[in-house]
Design brief:
Blueprint: H1 6-23, E1 30-35, E2 46-55, E3 73-81, H2 89-107, E4 113-114, E5 117-118, H3 120-129, E6 131-132, E7 147-148, H4 150-155, H5 157-166, E8 184-188, E9 194-198, H6 199-204, E10 223-224, H7 226-234
Parallel strand pairs: 1-3
Antiparallel strand pairs: 2-3, 4-5, 6-7, 8-9, 8-10
Helix pairs in contact: 1-2, 1-5, 2-3, 2-5
Length: about 240
Amino acid sequence: MTDAKMSDLIAVLEATWKRIQSLNADVPEAVVLVGSGGRRASTLYGHFARDVWAHGLKESKPEDHDGKEKKVECVHEVLITAEHLYRPAEEIFTTLLHESVHGIATSREIKDCSGNRHNKKFAALCEEVGLVPPEKPDPKIGWSAATLDPQTAELYAPEIEAIREALSVVRLINVKKKETKKTTWIASCRCERKLRLPKKTIDAVGGPKELLIECKKCEAPFAIEEDDLVDFQERMP
């Protein structure tokens, strides 16, 4: 079996974050994680979440401290999405550097995003850490798609190589769609007028084969269409 240790990668990412901090004073402390992107996994490379970890609490919940008895020290979170660990090490590092920009914005109380849309303030901060903002903003995500400057890649070459060596597994994206429960069936008459009927109505008017509903226009009874009739019978208890 191939080596599938995630702890090595997390340790490398933590060390890389420390390296980014050492070169950029306003990059804050953060818990660095690798985990699923959940429902957004197909498009989310990573995220920065402000004050979502409580530091130093033992045998008690954060809500047990109201700030008067004991002040809770909060720590930010940096997540690298596990479903995108197939990407080159340079791109994963770029995501980590991208999240450091959000960290700087948090430290300086700068609003760098509106929802998913990264604004011009974010683009300006990118240049501080060695990312190159796109030439023009994307309609949905704004200036988010900043790329790694070649000089920055050279500066962080040891960290990028360490990430490359630590990459071993990638989380699969769950593409299964939840099966929707059908609750209505279509019935039509001779003139092709259609009704959408729930099962309770179908049972009440005579069952799926003999609906006691007549069209006033063509005076023909409504009947469940053949495909829907088979589907209805398959779903009968």
